Amino acid sequence: MSRIGKKPIPIPDGVKVNVSQREVAVEGKLGKLVWSHRPEVNVTVEPDKKQVVVSRKNDERLPRALHGLTRALIRNMVEGVSTGYEKKLEIQGVGYLAAVQKDTLQLRVGFANEVHKKIPAGLTVTCPDQTHILIKGTDRQKVGQFAAEVRAVRKPEPYKGKGIRYDGEQVRRKAGKTAK
Prior knowledge:
The protein has 180 residues and is of the alpha+beta class. It has helices at residues 61-82, 140-153; strands at 9-10, 16-20, 23-28, 31-36, 41-46, 51-56, 85-92, 97-101, 104-108, 115-118, 123-126, 132-137, 163-166.
């Protein structure tokens, strides 16, 4: 049995979880998330114990694979509406900078033109200064996906380390061609 899947998900104060048909709705102080789970697993809410329990219908391969996944996704939803998720990016390079204008992230990262990335609905993107980007939201998948798309605009290169990287990310540096 799945070690992760059989753990119950605790529901913190201020969070409501509703399961109807195959749709899981989680509502908290930061917003509301809705997700439809697969028919191979069952999701039940135990209001007296304040927890959500995920179980599978049988022990075939697909339900076993979906058991832990479903539990992890619901836990991410509960954590997202209660505390939220955030990713921090930093820009390194001379003349490299970022700015937010309405619903667009503008990046100057060494190309001939600025790169404009539309900010998805449900995310808030701020630039505390010109070399840092802060992405916040309730949906963990959206936050991570947008952060990865922004980083992919100019990945950190191994010779000088210029580019966009996650905060605290270590970039493996290579010696130049003069090294012997």
